[in-house]
Amino acid sequence: MLRFVLSRLLTFVPTFFGVTLVSFAFIRLLPGDPIQLLAGERGVSEARYNELAEQFGFDAPIWKQYIDYLIGIFQGDLGTSFVTKRPVLDEFMALFPATLELSICAITLAILIGIPAGVIAAVNRGKFFDQALMTTALVGYSMPIFWWALLLIIVFSSGLGWTPVSGRMSLMYFIDGPTGFMTIDALLSGEEGAFKSAVSHLILPTIVLATIPLAIIARQTRSAMLEVLGEDYVRTARAKGLAPLRVNGMHALRNALIPVVTVIGLSVGTLLAGAILTETIFSWPGIGKWMVDSIFRRDYQAVQGGLLIIAVIVMIVNLTVDILYGLINPKIRNR
Amino acid sequence: MPLLEIRNLSVEFSTTSGKFRAVDGIDVTVEPNDLMAIVGESGSGKSVSMLAVMGLLPWTATITADVMAFNGHDLRDMTAKQRRRIIGRDMSMIFQEPMSSLNPCFTVGFQIKESLKKHTDLDRKGRQNRAIELMQLVGIPAPEKRLNAFPHQLSGGMSQRAMIAMALACEPKLLIADEPTTALDVTIQAQILELLTSLQEETGMALILITHDMGVVAETVRRVQVQYAGQKVEEQEVGALFDDPHHPYTAALLAALPERATERRLPTIPGVVPGQFDRPQGCLFSPRCRFANAHCKAVEPVQASPEMGLALCHYPLSHGEPTNREKAS
């Protein structure tokens, strides 16, 4: 197992350099000059332009800029946003907990509903529940996210008044806790009603963000289960007189989990990379919105730094998925 | 009272292209401590009839029977839950492919102990001890270690032994072995068959061996039931069956054994078992039977007397020659 993890970690090295190169190159390939964007409509004089270019290091040859960037990374310095003048890492870390909190809630919801739904659909293949569920999943998968979010806001926030419209916390509270997770910090703060407020702010964005992963997980679970349910060992389990819950939920599901874990891993990756639409609609102060803003501002340092951190996180998620394969199916572990 | 009694069992599968009758009016009687074989080629409904008894058929199957009783329980009007209390405990089954019949995600020990947990009151320690005992019983060396092995770490023969251990966990009264040796090497086949018969003798359980291999039958069982296209065509003691098969199908099967071949060229049975769309009129075996005449092809045969092995044939054979011929013509 250790050897497996180490060998996987080794493959991180080329991927890591690939990501630095791509993120460095892509943002520079976009048309638009950061200094001119920074200057706004009035523009800058040529002398001032050169001064700024020198200050940000844009006058150096492109390869030198890349080398400097790499050197910075290894010194733990992802650069400084030239818009906010703050270190990119600090900016990222200030916003990331919001994204992480929302992503964890969304993927948990998607797993808790998606897997059981897929199992039940597979076991009742072709019957009403199966068809209803698969149709719903298809609708969920193909629905425009912004429309779905607005619909929920109209019904539950404006209409019924059950949930707040946007943000992470009611303005009545000021929570600045150690974890950056609003729910946990609210709980730690001991302020009455703060936790409830944090949770109520989470509900709609979680549902919206969970919709697509839920649909994918449910469909994947169903098809993997259908394959596994015909296997001999499932018949063996039934021949032991085991209850259907144990046969389907344990003997079959465990074997069906491999492809499901794969799609969960992929979903986690995309969720962490920032759910731009969801964060924008619910004014959720996460990294998705920050990344988009940075791209519009041609904030080179912020974009390449943010992309790099996200890529590393996705790589870690993938490694976790690979390790999970081995835990789920020992046959893979020994290969 | 027989341990297992089945009268006129039929199984129909509803498929997209209509109904398919896989088992057609089978009778099976198994006494306690019985050792019998159900023989027939692929598609003769051997496995399906036993899976029907176990309640393991998919919901597309419709099962009808006049009598289907096990150990005094009527299996027909049982709920699924009641059935689950019997299968795996009093009646258990092992399957053709041992390698794929064990769940790759769980250790062998876990899978054996799971039966014990379901059907017995043994505590954790008791289950562990019983599992070790079972592994020794089926001849698996170093049982403590093997209990922690995963199925892919076992050979085919070892897997089938583990399957047998699992099936015997709760000391069943009836073990159904569905082609237990078909997927194994010839040398391992003999070992597994020997193990099964010796276990049958030791524990006093009844054993039904489903096979297509007459060679296996000869060495193993006491009584043989031959099935063809979902029907029972003959039933005899094993010695008598080999000496004097009464149904032409049985005779043809025996003639196809290499050990019994007298000519240079091994005799075969032409054609295949009829499927959903090519079921013949009259006797189902008539298109492949070398004794068949117009009467066979038109009229369904009835069972012959017990002396004639209950052969489902208009002209049951006696020492290789058709009888009753003159009556028909």
List the helices and strands and how they pair.
The complex is a heterodimer of chains A (335) and B (329).
Chain A: H1 2-29, H2 34-39, H3 46-56, H4 62-74, H5 88-123, H6 128-142, H7 145-159, H8 182-189, H9 194-229, H10 232-239, H11 244-272, H12 276-281, H13 287-296, H14 300-328, H15 330-333
Chain B: E1 4-15, E2 18-30, E3 35-39, H1 46-54, E4 61-64, E5 67-70, E6 73-74, H2 80-86, E7 91-94, H3 98-101, H4 108-119, H5 124-137, H6 143-147, H7 156-168, E8 174-178, H8 186-203, E9 206-211, H9 214-220, E10 223-228, E11 231-237, H10 238-243, H11 248-255, H12 294-298, E12 317-318, E13 321-322, H13 325-328
Parallel strand pairs in B: 3-9, 3-10, 7-8, 8-9
Antiparallel strand pairs in B: 1-2, 1-4, 1-5, 5-6, 10-11, 12-13
Organism (chain B): Roseivivax halodurans JCM 10272
GO biological process, one term (chain B): peptide transport
GO molecular function (chain B): ATP binding; ATP hydrolysis activity
